[in-house]
DNA sequence: CCGTCCCTTGAACGTCTGTTCATAACGGCT
DNA sequence: AGCCGTTATGAACAGACGTTCAAGGGACGG
């Protein structure tokens, strides 16, 4: 059997084992005896069933406590469905990102429906999410990249492509890559490219996307957003952004602390979508982790730039009650 | 805490533990340390979360093998969605019923939607199903009994009421009982009762039911259908039915081996619904277990009297390929 | 204020489960 | 055919899990 090709015999047997285990409540031992298999084999089939998404486990939350961070977020931002992820006390930000991306991956798996188009940004956060997706086949699903990843200076070749491909592959979906530079040097070149049919096709897919998935970027995050460290912006660019009061970015399109984004020159050079696309989207999932992103997140929320937020508990707390100390 | 009243604190904590366990994949030990609880307490919360339906586990079946019994059933009865439940080789029919009712209870939990009305028959099979339901709150759900259970000879008082109440209680739904005799002695009495407003209310609910749940009855089942042993039918009645080629019943309304049910005098005395109600229903779940029910099941299938069937594997096999020996 | 009942708690136990590792079976290639 | 790399298998182990049970704590009534 080739890797990646799913064996229908194994899947059938795994489903049968999973039913006996999870529905009928038998032990692996009893299942092994009943089906004439060895117990380790049953255990392996069970792992297979879980890993390949053949078994889906969802948690139905009771209504949140009124004093919870989620309730406070809902009260402050009425358009928002927040998911605040608890982390172990005293843990590092890399643990927070791990927890948040696992939760976001699970949420995405429960959200996607057949026939939808999903707009996808890229970066450190979404890469982490992509590594925790539960495999599932969703018919007629399409992923479209929201901002370009082909940069003259992109020494981490494959990083972005891998992320998008991992999402698409996980759901048996088509991936539409966006092979343009993340930032153009000349806005006119961007305008010219935007008239190209191949680019227009991607832009149309972005327009009619049912679900958007992205994070917010911030220059001062402890785990820095990819775009700020990979050499996409030269020092002069970064200084210009700071002078204009830029608080963060979504898909390499910048916005200010109050959530506005008009009249920021750099955006004319960015390959990312106009943020009104983000604001208009009926379903948009924003995944955020790390105290360094608090400012960027507050700005995005002020601008109504997300409908669903997955965030770790310390970051959510800092957002609402300020940073400790 | 009063029994039956769910403690919101416990539920919240249980949901949190369940998320850490099932979504984040931590061990009970790690969860205990993180939340400052003892490991047994975490284990108990986890059980609580599963038992109360806070955690939902569903198995996504890969498409069935072409030579499987399910595929054969689908080919023979194109209107049917079959669920064939495997049982241990050499096991007794009571084990089959156990397996089938667990599977049926799980299926029902995945089927019901807010606002629906569910028509419910009663008997040995549905009683077994009622004992395996996963608790879940479904808003605005109503259960309505399909056939009467108040019989002058009903010495097993409470049996039927308990079944229906168990279903309703499990989903936080309202139960509409049907307090008329299972069989009237005089058809005219039935007609008179059918003009009563209380009865008409039940009949209207039956008419607009979204989902029907029932089994098929057969006189010769090894685990005999309740109606044939509880003294509802006297020997003369039973002989009359046999003479008219009756193959089985659904909610104490009889049909022949070819699935027709017109002109069976006994049905004029039965409190159950006209079988055209069953045939018309968009969703109808029939739960069948035991070789004795093969004939009754074959008749019901011939008449198109179900859309979904949950049946054990030996019974399904006997249906398609005849009884062994 | 004390006794009783009942529920909750966590240490300890025995079972169940995932994984490891040595061996066997398989399939491709020369 | 014969070799070799790869995959599948089940006995054995270590760890994780659910449950039991004796002790502790709170509510209620005497």
TrEMBL record, chains A, B:
<dbReference type="InterPro" id="IPR036388">
    <property type="entry name" value="WH-like_DNA-bd_sf"/>
</dbReference>
<dbReference type="Pfam" id="PF04198">
    <property type="entry name" value="Sugar-bind"/>
</dbReference>
<dbReference type="GO" id="GO:0030246">
    <property type="term" value="F:carbohydrate binding"/>
</dbReference>
<keyword id="KW-0238">DNA-binding</keyword>
<keyword id="KW-0805">Transcription regulation</keyword>
<dbReference type="InterPro" id="IPR007324">
    <property type="entry name" value="Sugar-bd_dom_put"/>
</dbReference>
<dbReference type="InterPro" id="IPR051054">
    <property type="entry name" value="SorC_transcr_regulators"/>
</dbReference>
<protein>
    <submittedName>
        <fullName>Transcriptional regulator</fullName>
    </submittedName>
</protein>
<dbReference type="InterPro" id="IPR037171">
    <property type="entry name" value="NagB/RpiA_transferase-like"/>
</dbReference>
<feature type="domain" description="Sugar-binding">
    <location>
        <begin position="65"/>
        <end position="320"/>
    </location>
</feature>
<dbReference type="Pfam" id="PF13384">
    <property type="entry name" value="HTH_23"/>
</dbReference>
<dbReference type="GO" id="GO:0003677">
    <property type="term" value="F:DNA binding"/>
</dbReference>
<keyword id="KW-0804">Transcription</keyword>
<comment type="similarity">
    <text>Belongs to the SorC transcriptional regulatory family.</text>
</comment>
């Amino acid at each position: 059997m080739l890797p990646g090709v799913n064996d229908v015999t194994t899947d059938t047997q795994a489903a049968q084992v999973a039913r006996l285990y999870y529905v009928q409540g038998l032990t692996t031992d009893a299942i092994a005896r009943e089906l004439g298999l060895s117990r380790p084999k049953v255990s392996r089939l069970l792992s297979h069933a879980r890993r390949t998404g053949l078994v889906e486990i969802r948690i139905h939350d009771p209504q949140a406590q009124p004093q919870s961070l989620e309730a406070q977020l809902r009260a402050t931002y009425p358009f928002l469905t927040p998911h605040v992820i608890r982390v172990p006390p005293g843990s590092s930000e890399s643990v927070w990102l791990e927890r948040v991306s696992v939760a976001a991956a699970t949420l995405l798996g429960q959200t996607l429906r057949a026939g939808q188009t999903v707009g996808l940004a890229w970066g450190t956060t979404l890469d982490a999410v992509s590594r925790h997706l539960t495999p599932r086949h969703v018919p007629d699903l399409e992923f479209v990249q929201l901002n370009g990843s082909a940069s003259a200076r992109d020494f981490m070749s494959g990083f972005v492509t891998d992320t998008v491909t991992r999402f698409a592959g996980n759901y048996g979906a088509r991936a539409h890559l966006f092979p343009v530079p993340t930032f153009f040097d000349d806005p006119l070149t961007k305008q010219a490219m935007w008239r190209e049919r191949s680019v227009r096709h991607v832009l149309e897919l972005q327009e009619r996307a049912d679900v958007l998935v992205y994070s917010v970027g911030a220059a001062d995050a402890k785990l820095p957003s990819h775009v700020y460290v990979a050499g996409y912006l030269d020092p002069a660019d970064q200084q210009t952004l700071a002078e204009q009061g830029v608080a963060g970015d979504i898909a390499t399109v910048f916005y200010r602390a109050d959530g506005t984004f008009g009249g920021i020159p750099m955006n004319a050079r960015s390959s990312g979508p106009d943020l009104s696309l983000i604001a208009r989207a009926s379903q948009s999932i924003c995944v955020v982790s790390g105290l360094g992103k608090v400012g960027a997140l507050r700005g995005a929320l002020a601008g109504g730039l997300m409908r669903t937020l997955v965030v770790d508990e310390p970051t959510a707390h800092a957002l609402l009650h300020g940073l400790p100390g």
